[in-house]
Structures are given as C-alpha cells and as structure tokens.
Amino acid sequence: MGNQQVTVHPIGGACMARDGSPETGVTTHAG
C-alpha cells in the first residue's frame, strides 16, 4: 500500500485517495 491512507474497519478498509482528490478515492470534501 505504500503511502496510501486507508480506513480502519473490522472486515477491511478502503483507499482514501491515491492523490488526495475525491476523484481517486472513496471520500469527498464532505467526508
């Protein structure tokens, strides 16, 4: 995973964003 941030979840996580933008991750400016 390198330097990617992931969510912590009992059954897995999701990549927050590979470049810090909502277009490449699962979150937006609203969370």
Automatic annotation (TrEMBL):
<feature type="region of interest" description="Disordered">
    <location>
        <begin position="1"/>
        <end position="31"/>
    </location>
</feature>
<protein>
    <submittedName>
        <fullName>Uncharacterized protein</fullName>
    </submittedName>
</protein>
